[in-house]
Structures are given as C-alpha cells and as structure tokens.
C-alpha cells in the first residue's frame, strides 16, 4: 500500500509540473497567435473542438453559423477550431464554407489548430468496443489540442464529451458543448437489456444471453463515465427536445454500485479538478440553423408522384423500411403504378461499406418486385438534389429516434410533404401542428406509411397546396439562422469568457 501511495504521489507531482509548464508556454503561444492575426487589445480565445470541420454537413453548419455570428457581434473574441482536416488550408476551408453554406467568415479572427491523430476517432480504428475506443481517441486528440493552444473557453461541437477532462486538466478552463446526439442513451441500454436486435446491437449479441450481459455491463460502465463527463460542463446545448430529454436523463443518471467502486480508483481524482463546480441540471434546446432560402422559392403546385428520400446510406437511416413501405403502398394501391409513382433515394456513400449497403438495397428492391419503380442516386450533386426537392410530392424518413432531421426541414421548406417515423425530432419538434393544423404525417408500420402516401397523393389541389404552404411557413420561420443565433447567445456561453473576467 505504501509503495502504491508513493507511486501515486510521484505521478501527481510530475503531472502537476507538466501542466504548469504547458500553461506557462501557452501565454507565449497566445501572444504569437494575436500577432499572426494582427489583433490588438484585450482578446479572448474561444476554442471549438470539431475534428471534421470541413465535412460540409449539418453539424458543420452549426459550427460555422456560431463562429460567423461571433465574428459579427463579438469583435474581442478569437475563434480557434481544432481540426483534423490537415489536407486543407485555412483559406480553402473558408472558401468551402462560403460555397457550401453561403456563410462569410473573416480570416482576421479565425485560427486553426491542426490535429494529426484524427484517425483515433474513426470507426475503422476500433472494430470492437467502438464507443470506448473513439472516446479514448478523442481524449488523445484533446491532449494534442491543448498542448498546441489552450483557449479561454472550450466548446465541443461534435459530441466528444470525454475531451472535457483533458481541457480542464491541462487548461483549467470552463467547457461547454452543443450536443447533436448523445454518445450513449438510456434507449441503447434498454435495447441491450431486452436483447432487441438493432444497428447498435447485432443479432449475434442479442441472441446470446452471455454476450448480452457482457455488453450491458460495458454500456453501464460507459454510461456512468459519460454522465461524469457531461457534468463537467458549464453549459450544454441540445439540438432537439429528443436530445435534450436524453441529455437531461444522463445528467441525472445514478449508479450507486459504480459510485462506490469509483471511489477506489485513481479516476476519483478527476473530481478534484472541478472542486466547487456546479454541474448543469439540464441542456438548453437550440435548434440547428437550416438554410431554406433557395428551397422556399420552389413552386408548390404541379408536383409529380415522387416519394423522395434524402439521407446518407447509413444503417440507422433504415432504407430497408422505406423499400418495404413503398412495396406495401403499391401492393395496396396498385392504381398508382399507372400514374408513374416512383421512390427516389438520394444519399451519400462515404466508403466501401456504404456502397455495399446500397447494393444490398438494390437487391432488396428486386426481391420485393419494385425495382422498376425505385431509383437510387448516390452522391448526387447539390443542384440535382434541389431539382428533386422542387418536383417531389412526399419526403420520406424512416429513421427511428432521429435526433433532429435537417432533411425533413428541407422537405418542408421545399414544399415536399413529410412522412416520417413517429419518434425523435420529427415527431416532437419538426412535423408538428402549425396554427392548429398538420404540417405532415407520422408512421411506425409499413401499412401506416403506405396509407399516408395514399392520403397525400389523393388530396385535392386546394388541400395539397394548403398543407405544403403551411409546412413551408413553419419550417422557414422556426429553423432559421436568426433563431439559432438567438438560442446560441442565450445559452450562457458568454459569461464564461467575458473580456476582462
């Protein structure tokens, strides 16, 4: 025992010396950064942890909209993005943001810290224990980030809550996050416990009592430490009510047995880093910004009998359910075959695994006897996607527990009537009544989807036009850039980095 105490004391002393050295060097690094940007006066640095900042997706729109807003309204703030996009320059990223999102960024108050170990947070690096591996990998990235530059405030905008410990340990700074999707949720634990097969719970595990118990223990441990990480934050934002409800549940999560066991591990020292810290009791909903300006100009009349799906070809999007719903529809209402009805699936394919998934979906369409009425468009150019949005009648989404659903907002803004799964953001935040009237439809079973397809395609011109117009009006005014910026600024981040604080 004595030897162990000596070893711990030595390790603590060496770590403390290392941390003090990093913080001392950081003062010079900040001064160098300000000189490089040509900045003067009392400036504060806000760091955004976003290893895939150049990906061009909805999460990146959140990042760049927040930074652009900060640049317009907070001239004394410097934005630093911790990015693993080492194959792109600062100028190239700024130009892509302009081209992809029509967001203007000033290079004068924007800086990038390049992370060389991004592969440690990729799925391929962790074929087993992926959640744990990626979380540990994110901590390595955060260590790399803090060694390069410690900001005055650290904000995670990608979902890597375990990085909070590193930012607090090395920087002694407040941390916060915009949460798109909780890394683990109570739903995931429930599915493993009930041995329900899912894209996060394979048949091999769900069919085995021993493997299910092992995975449940793994998830239980992970949930415990994920909750500990979120509690380190000074503020939390969530992109939907579904995400907020899960984050709030995690913040309140208790495990008495693990509490006891935790006190007998060196990890208990993490609590000393934030002595006196008040953990957030809940997350604040800040809906992501959706650029609907061009889509909102599309005509609402003379739409073709096209059922459109816009979603990456990832397993959780459940394209199989879309094919089965469409097969049920044409079987129950065969008259629509003669009217030229078509299911069009537009989506991104990231890698060989996604490409193989598309091939299997084509095979399923053939097996169901609907291949003549189904079209797959993989990695479509943005203008082609807009073209389909301008002439489709129905927008389809079958993902269960979609945390938000920017594609559904885009359907509505474009005048495409949404038919979505009755869960998550689409149910609670997006496809909701406006002025007491519906803006779309929800379903769970293939039969329900099919009946909603029939309802939309059988509407009178007047009823159809009213529904499209109502859905557009709601989407455009509720999920605008202005609403996002208002929510972002009301989250409380400013008080943690106030100039002169």
TrEMBL record:
Q: Has keyword Glycosyltransferase?
A: yes
- Please give the Gene3D superfamilies that the UniProt record associates with this protein: Glycogen Phosphorylase B
Q: In which pathway does it act?
A: Protein modification; protein glycosylation
- The top EC class, named as a word, is transferase
Provide GO CC annotations from the record: endoplasmic reticulum membrane
Family annotation (SUPFAM superfamilies): UDP-Glycosyltransferase/glycogen phosphorylase
Asked if Transmembrane is a keyword of the record, the answer is: yes
Under the GO molecular function aspect, what terms does this record hold? GDP-Man:Man(3)GlcNAc(2)-PP-Dol alpha-1,2-mannosyltransferase activity
Q: What is this protein called?
A: GDP-Man:Man(3)GlcNAc(2)-PP-Dol alpha-1,2-mannosyltransferase
What is the organism of origin for this protein?
Phanerochaete sordida
């Amino acid at each position: 025992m004595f030897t162990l105490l000596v070893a711990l004391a030595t390790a603590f002393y060496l770590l403390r010396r290392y941390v003090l050295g990093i913080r001392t060097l950081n003062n010079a690094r900040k001064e160098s950064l300000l000189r490089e940007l040509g900045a003067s006066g009392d400036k504060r640095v806000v760091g955004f942890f976003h290893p895939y900042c150049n990906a061009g997706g909805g999460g990146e729109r959140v990042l760049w909209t927040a930074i652009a807003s900060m640049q317009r309204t907070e001239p004394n703030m410097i934005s630093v993005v911790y990015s693993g996009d080492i194959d792109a320059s600062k100028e190239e990223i700024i130009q892509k943001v302009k081209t992809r999102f029509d967001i203007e960024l000033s290079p004068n108050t924007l800086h990038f810290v390049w992370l060389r170990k991004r592969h440690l947070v990729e799925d391929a690096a962790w074929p087993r224990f992926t959640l744990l591996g990626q979380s540990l990998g994110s901590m390595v990235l955060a260590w790399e980030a803090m060694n390069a530059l410690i900001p005055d405030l650290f904000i995670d905008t990608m979902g890597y809550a375990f990085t909070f410990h590193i930012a607090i340990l090395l920087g002694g700074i407040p941390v916060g996050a915009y949460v798109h999707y909780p890394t683990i949720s109570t739903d995931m634990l429930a599915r493993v416990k009930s041995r329900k097969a899912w894209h996060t719970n394979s048949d091999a595990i769900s069919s085995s009592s021993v493997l299910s118990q092992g995975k449940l223990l793994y998830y239980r441990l992970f949930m415990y430490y994920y909750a500990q990480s979120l509690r380190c934050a000074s503020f939390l934002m969530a992109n939907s009510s579904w995400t907020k409800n899960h984050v709030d549940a995690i913040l309140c999560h208790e495990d008495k047995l693990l509490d006891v066991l935790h006190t007998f591990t060196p990890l208990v020292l993490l609590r000393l880093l934030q002595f006196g810290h008040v953990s957030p009791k809940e997350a604040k909903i800040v809906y992501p910004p959706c650029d609907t300006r061009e889509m909102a100009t599309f005509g609402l009349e003379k739409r073709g009998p096209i059922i459109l799906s816009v979603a990456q070809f990832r397993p959780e999007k459940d394209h199989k359910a879309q094919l089965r719903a469409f097969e049920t529809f044409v079987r129950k209402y065969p008259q629509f075959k003669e009217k030229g009805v078509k299911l069009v699936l537009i989506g991104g394919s990231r890698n060989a695994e996604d490409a193989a998934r598309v091939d299997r979906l084509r095979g399923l369409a053939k097996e169901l006897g609907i291949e003549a009425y189904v079209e797959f468009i993989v990695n479509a150019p943005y203008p082609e996607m807009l073209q389909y949005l301008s002439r489709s009648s129905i927008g389809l989404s079958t993902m269960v527990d979609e945390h938000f659903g920017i594609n559904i907002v885009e359907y509505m803004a474009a005048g495409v009537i949404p038919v979505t799964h009755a869960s998550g953001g689409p149910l609670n935040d997006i496809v909701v009544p406006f002025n007491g009237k519906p803006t779309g439809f929800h379903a769970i079973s293939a039969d329900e989807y099919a009946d909603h397809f029939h309802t939309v395609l059988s509407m009178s011109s007047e009823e159809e036009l009213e529904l499209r117009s109502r859905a557009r009006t709601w989407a455009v005014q509720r999920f605008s850039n202005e609403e996002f910026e208002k929510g972002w600024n009301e989250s409380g981040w400013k008080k943690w980095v106030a100039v002169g604080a």
